[in-house]
Design goal:
By secondary structure, the protein is mostly beta strands. A hairpin with an 8-residue loop joins β3 and β4. A five-stranded antiparallel beta sheet has the order 4-3-2-1-5, with no helix packed on it. The chain has no helices and five strands. The termini are far apart. The radius of gyration is 10 Å and the shape is globular.
Length: about 70
């Protein structure tokens, strides 16, 4: 679970470089929602919000995100 080790913080802007949850989110930016590192409930994925008007919050692995 190396994905969990990378640190993002709540409110941090990130760029989505790939997204298994919703491919429409690729290339967009959003903000991390999670206050703590992701766990089993989300399958080790971060919740990213504010990606687009017609795209709800998406779940992305650490490897799919880059700081914006």
């Amino acid at each position: 679970m190396a994905d969990r080790a990378a640190g993002f913080t709540a409110g941090q802007r990130v760029r989505i470089v790939s997204c298994e949850d919703d491919p429409r989110a690729v290339g967009r930016t959003g903000r991390i929602v999670d206050e703590v590192p992701p766990g089993p409930l989300t399958g080790g994925r971060w919740t990213v919000h504010g990606v687009g008007l017609l795209i709800g919050p998406v779940l992305c692995h650490t490897r799919e995100l880059r700081p914006a």
